[in-house]
Task: structure prediction
Amino acid sequence: MTKERRRRVLTVGERQYFWTTYHRHADGCEEVLRVRARGTATGLTLAFRPEGQRRVPDGWGSGAGEIRDGDRWLNLNMPGVVRAFVDAAVDAGWMDQTRTAGRRDGWELFDDAWARRKRQRDGDPDAGGVPDAGVADRVFGSPGHGPAQHDPA
Result:
């Protein structure tokens, strides 16, 4: 199994989720976050495709797993970011609909995940904070972020 496709585990209360991120080319670039609750056969696939101000890694000046909407970005390799997307998907009812609609446009949850991640980083105990296991806040190999708002610190 390649590094990009390795399965990781996220624990949320009593529930465990397997998750992985990867980049693929299907009629253009897309960044993918795949989440499946332990003990279930189906999972949720969030696909992020570039459009307008929305950007995904293209191999030039951006790090793997980095998704951008305007000047805001999140790194899908960080457990806290994945937790924000899982919580947003659960609240939207998407995790219960994986058998009928397992692939979704991840951008629909971006604003919610962004706000949750900001609350996590601001220390809100109700935001579902997950330690990022020493992963740097900056995206790997992405020089020159300048004034852009990176994963909320």
Notes: The beta strands are 8-12, 15-25, 29-37, 44-48, 54-55, 66-69, 72-75, 103-105. Residues 79-91 form the longest helix (13 residues). Residues 3-121 form one domain. Residues 42 and 99 are 6 Å apart (CA to CA).
